[in-house]
Request: fold
Amino acid sequence: MAAAIVDRTGRHRLPIGSEDFEKVVSRCVYVDKTLLIRDLLDSSLDVTLLCRPRRFGKSLAMRMLQCFFESPVEGYVPDRSRLFDGLAIARAKESYLSERACHPVVFLSLGGVGGPTREGCWSTFARQVSAEYVRHRYVLEGAALAEVERESFERVMGQRASEAELLASLASLSDCLARHHGTDVVILIDEYDHMVTEGHLNGYRDFAIDVMRRWLTGALKATTSLFLACLTGVQRVSCESIFSGLNNVVVDTAMDLGFIEGFGFTRAEAEALARYQGLAEDKLPEMHDWYDGYNFGGVEAYNPWSVLNYLRQGGVAQPYWGNTSDNAIVHQLFQKATGESIAELQDLAAGGVVVRPLDLATVFSELDQRKGLRSDAALWGQLYLAGYVTTDDVAMPHDDMVPRRLRRPNREVGWLYRREFAERTIVAVGNYDLLLSLKDALVSGDATGLACALEHILVDSPSYLDLVSENSYHMLLLGLVYDIAGYRFPQSNRESGDGRPDIALEPELENQGLLPAIVIEVKDAHDGPAGLDVLSQAALRQAEERRYGIDLAGAGRLCWGIAFSGKRASCASRRLG
Reply:
């Protein structure tokens, strides 16, 4: 299907950060996603849980659904049905339009619910529920409510509700609206998982899960008065925890086929939008390299937030998503990763592939423990849901035992990996200036300066007390050379020349005429520090004789031999070509 770019003002204004559907479709350039309404109606599902990465259009889509379905109420709820004139859903079957402006809608965004304490979480939750009750206060003017129901409604609205009343508030409001309007209710819950994530990070996870389970269950079970319910979030919190009392919840992740074009931009949409905004044709490959690469149910997808910002900046390629998509759980996983997991993350960061099963049902206790196949699958599942990895192996999406080839989606996500590893290194070293000195010495070929920086790190950093093998020194050095300005992510043990250098650094495309390719061979002096200088020279000769880095782009090659013994280091370098 051809991409539909809508701009009712003709002013080419991009909707950066706006989740207000009415404003976006009326005043800005809009990539028409209204066929999501058709897909929801065709699915005939009572309750749909849509899990996608942050900033992929979930909140805007939820506001779109609200504008489409919600019945107007004079003085309280405006009639927004005309917003859809001329859009894709208006050109679809008449049966879809027959549901337009015909249902009361309960809309709650839980993105602001949480905080460092359970008391603060409960308070923000009560405020969000109160605001939706205030929006529907017109029901107090009708005759559908008994006196006791009016009193309870007013207590929730005034944030004076008891615990039982607040936990029943979603079901109660839905019931009140169904009776007042005489028709079934649409329930829309945006960022449903935020409270549980906050609880996981701040020590009240079980409390948050219990609140969400009790609050959702009563309302979503009421299929006689429920037209449809749609929930969105990043995490797919396991059904055993939140949805244990429900059998009508259908989960749709990025691997499923049901709503594949509802979120993110397809290639056709991204390129049509870029052309409409006047981006030069020769810039399209750059946009693809930086922001494309996701696979949603077999369909190629771009990150919409990044594309919009890229176009707003006139085609300046840089990370945009990383500055807004704060994901504390993913950050925690990176910082705690050890052993095999950290090596696999490094492979992904360098553009490699990791084959692992994905468990997309988040069981937070497994993220704490991370032991065994299932919890390992949960780790990769978190990275997948957050958008840090993607896969083209989307068959049998709900089978958590199927091995899948995981890869990083694009260059922007590669930058996110680089940032996570750089932060990990800074924490481990504990001295940012020392880390800068090390990087400067490495790039300039200053062997004395590099050895001095390494020995300071070995002596002063408690994170490096247990270096007992060549591999451990190798991993130490690999961690220290992340995020060197002008260079791509380091590669480890990749074929180059006539062998496999321990570490290789290739300049970014724009710096290949200025910076040399760097190759490093690491040795461990098992017999003590007496022969360190001889060993570093031997490592350097190995790098030269085996032509390490000969196939790497750059302004020549800078070969290094680095030898370690305990807390001592010796370095030797030579610039070639």
